[in-house]
Amino acid sequence: MKKKKVIVFGAGGFIGTYLIDELLTQKYKVLASDISPIGERYYNDNNIPYISIDITNKNDFDKIEKKYDAVIHLAALQPANVSEKNFTPQNYIKVNVIGTLNILEFCRKNHVGKIIYACSHRNTQGLWKKNKAIKEEEGRALKYYGEYAMFSISESAAQDCIEYYKTQYNLKSTILRLPPVYGYGPHTEIFKNGKPEKTGFLTFLEKAMACEPLEVWGDSNIGRDIIYVKDVVSAFIKALDNDKAQGLFNITSGKYLSLKEQVEITAKIFWANNTNPKIVELKGKQNCMDSFLYDNSKAKEELDWTPQYSFEEMMIDYKKEMENKKFEYLVKKRKTMFRNN
Question: What is the tens place of the pLDDT at every residue in 113-149?
Fold first, then answer.
């Protein structure tokens, strides 16, 4: 099979970095695109073709060579990356809707064969129920309040724009819906309601490596569906090579990982000495974990994709990634972002 020529928007991000690395390993012809100066330095240092494109500026697209078989669209404004001072509804619309329209117009004008778009699972928030696996055909259920509201509105509009271009212009399109994606790089701090906050994942990791007690707050049986970044990457490549599989796909583990399991496995992999890990359950303290589960059978059947990593296998591989420092720039990029906001 002839390898496709692909442009990846949002290449300076977490998923984009892992994806482009694998695409190049598999001998695809790839152009990386982003607006991140740190990302640009990383790609230039590794002799990977790169172009700086602001997707909100339609004139920027004139800089791109026209002949591409596929576009992978990972560029988005998300609450985890938005400080309180930078939050405006207009920014979500500008990046997530206008930016997507500009990418779609590039595809239409230049006869790009296919677009693959990554979206969050947040616009199904009203469907979340314990141990109920949500299917693609159940549609959306947005909540119009809270930090994810405007993000979900804008992202849903972007998906509808993609559907319009698919119907109106016969642009082949695949939308991959992702729950929280784990992997080495972004799990240091996030913005929570616009304010910096260390992630629970990093807190558990640091405690385990320091052989300090890991506190589990509230109901330790509450859980959620997560996915490893390398499984996400394999789904993108499956979608890239399968022109028949179009529409929306849940790219998830399809399993309910409890908070207790997450902490126990993290301690098992990262506890730094030969003593038994110490885990303390504090049921009187409330945790703020959202609970959700997704059915991934459509992706298995139509994309021929199946996740390969259990949470334990993910953590083992995460440790290897952390030790080899291949994508250390993602950590530095994250720290720089928080210093500048």
Answer: 999 999 999 999 999 987 899 999 999 999 999 889 9
> Is residue 63 within 8 Å of 71, Cβ to Cβ?
no
Instruction: Give the pLDDT confidence of 57-105 residue by residue, as tens digits.
Output: 999 999 998 899 999 999 999 988 877 777 889 999 999 999 999 999 9
Does 278 map to a domain? no
Cβ proximity of 310 and 316 under 8 Å? no
Domain total for the chain?
1
- Provide the pLDDT for residue 248: 98
pLDDT digits (tens, 9 = 90+) for 175-196: 999 999 999 987 667 767 777 7
Query: Rounded to 5 degrees, what are φ and ψ at 19?
Result: -65, -50
pTM exceeds 0.85 = yes
**How many angstroms separate the CA atoms of 117 and 174, rounded?**
6
Q: Which two tokens stand for residue 200?
A: 């629970």
Supply φ then ψ for residue 64, to 5 degrees.
-90, 135
Instruction: Give me the residue label for tokens 């929280």.
Output: 180
234, part of any domain: yes
Model confidence at 304, pLDDT cuts 50, 70, 90, reads: very high
Asked whether the CA dihedral 311, 238, 291, 189 is positive or negative, the reply is positive
Calculated CA dihedral for residues 311, 296, 242, 171, nearest 10 degrees: -120
**Separation of alpha carbons 177 and 125, rounded Å:** 13
Q: Give me the phi and psi of 74, to 5 degrees please.
A: -115, 0
User: What pLDDT score was predicted for residue 185?
Assistant: 83
pLDDT of residue 93: 97
Distance, CA of 132 to CA of 291 (rounded, Å): 10
* Domain ranges, residue 22: 5-185+226-254+290-311
CATH number for the domain spanning 65: value is: 3.40.50.720
Query: Considering the domain boundaries, does residue 265 fall inside one?
Result: no
| 127: in domain | yes
SS3 207: helix
What is the chain's Cα-based Rg? Answer: 20
Task: Write the CA distances from 243 to 69, 239, 247, 294, 321, integer angstroms.
Answer: 11, 7, 11, 24, 32
